[in-house]
Amino acid sequence: MSVGDVDTAGLGEWPHLGYSAFRLDRASDRRARMPEFLADPRARACLIAGETVVLARRGEGPHGAMLPLAEAVALGGRTAEACLLGLDDAGAVPHMVLPLHAASAGALAEREELLLTDLRSIAVQGLVSREELAELACAKAMLAWHARRSFCSNCGTRLEVAEAGWRRECPHCGAQHFPRTDPVAIMLTIDGDACLLGRSARFAPGMWSCLAGFVEPGETFEEAARRETLEEAGIRTGAARYLCSQPWPFPMSVMIGFHLEAASREIRIDDNELEGARWFHRDEARLLLTRTHPDGLVAPPPMAIAHHLIRAFVEGRDPPAG
């Protein structure tokens, strides 16, 4: 069956790629104005305590992640550790994230007007707008970095927050520390009308997905994709074609998506990484996407980049531009 003959019925409109609709002006040239932004009566903020995000219930949804700053502070948000996310294009309204102590989050859990949940659930269930989901992704990654960067890695002195949360400075040795993002290559290897999917023990029951792995120092994204495929599944690959990328705030990564051309076929899995890997025909991959596979097998949810890489293979076309 050729690509043009593939039955894509049932796939519907192409889903939105989660965490990827960040629409704020990051205002990197105005971060020194943080005291002014904190005093702005229009300012808005989200509240995060570790993995827990606080949402304001709004009927059937979408719920609200960005609260008036005064309300966020009243709920326990700490302005001393606030990070500026950016400015709303419409009116230059500051948007920020305030960290919340776990104890404070626990006290909010019983309030009927609030919903406390985690970022993955918010994305999969579509609990907030696309734009607010992207803001939450940035917010969570920033707080995760701050939680891991309290002391100077050069001299051990406690760091001070600067540039509206986008830099930490050492008052002793003068070292500056900036937020990090860890690149991850995620790839779908293709051999004609078949694609290679793997299964990890940490996946939900029945889920099969693309292979993925962190990019190592001195490596291109394409080299990382080929190396990880060889290490995890024993498959050699050739041409690598970039399709799309996705912020992945667990805790602070970006996923770079590729289609790889298979140069070998025999699978030899790394038992430490995968509990299984196999080739799926294009038609069977479509059943994973529509969750109608007779064996109950499924692809990752539509918000995930792996879903988009698989769908691009099934439909024979690239994902729409984000």
Taking the sheet with the most strands, its summary is: 6 strands, mixed
Tell me the series of helices and strands, N- to C-terminal. HEEEHEEHEHHEEEEEEHEEEHH
How far apart are the termini? 30 Å
Q: Structural class of the secondary elements?
A: alpha+beta
General shape: globular
Strand segment count: 15
Mean pLDDT: 95
Roughly how many Å is the radius of gyration?
Answer: 22 Å
Query: Which runs of at least 5 residues are low in confidence (pLDDT < 50)?
Result: 1-7
**What share of the residues lie within helices?**
10-25%
What portion of residues belong to β-strands? 25-35%
Helix tally equals 8
Topology readout:
Elements: H1 34-38, E1 44-49, E2 52-56, E3 67-68, H2 69-74, E4 83-87, E5 94-99, H3 102-108, E6 114-118, H4 119-125, H5 130-148, E7 160-162, E8 167-169, E9 176-177, E10 182-191, E11 194-199, E12 211-214, H6 221-233, E13 237-248, E14 253-262, E15 276-281, H7 282-290, H8 305-315
Parallel strand pairs: 1-5, 10-14
Antiparallel strand pairs: 1-2, 1-3, 2-6, 4-5, 7-8, 8-9, 10-11, 10-12, 11-15, 13-14
Helix pairs in contact: 7-8
